[in-house]
Amino acid sequence: SQQGEEDPQALSIQEGENATMNCSYKTSINNLQWYRQNSGRGLVHLILIRSNEREKHSGRLRVTLDTSKKSSSLLITASRAADTASYFCATDEGGNTPLVFGKGTRLSVIA
Amino acid sequence: DAGVIQSPRHEVTEMGQEVTLRCKLISGHNSLFWYRQTMMRGLELLIYFNNNVPIDDSGMPEDRFSAKMPNASFSTLKIQPSEPRDSAVYFCASSERGFGNTIYFGEGSWLTVV
Q1: Does the pLDDT of residue A78 top 70, yes or no?
Q2: Which residues of B touch A (CB under 8 A)?
């Protein structure tokens, strides 16, 4: 079953703009991760944020986590055409509970 | 490191045939996951292993699906007999210590059953 639900399902922006994708989940989590998938390829890990963290940065990526609202956001600043991909959030509840992925946001960055 | 290696990358087979998908883990990883991705259902966890032992196979859709880990670095996912609704991309992934850490995905096996 899907735990994380990304919003929007699809996003189209111009190169140089910022892209914001949101993820909502239902249960308490241990970690939340964001992954990227280029067309026809496997998923690639971007960033992991733990339940006791509120914000994390990695290069042009900024992830926030609000456990009271059970939501996370991924911000890509100064987007590039190469950022075009699908972005997934994934959550786990700790222990041996599986990592459950949302259905993703398809981001198109137009040059 | 070469990453998670899956084979075949693409397979087209006829309904009723046996399909075997293969996966080589990243050296030193002890957790192995098989996922299936379709447009309708997204990314679904089929089964995962920890230290070669299946921990949870509740995502395996039917008895036609089976997965093995004969050693610490290799796994197979078998579908017998295959059906058109099994058409999907099957991903193998591994991690050092289960789900609470980064999972590394292979490039996937694209299966079409006609």
Answers
A1: yes
A2: 4, 33, 35, 42-43, 45, 48, 50, 55-56, 59, 91, 93, 98-108
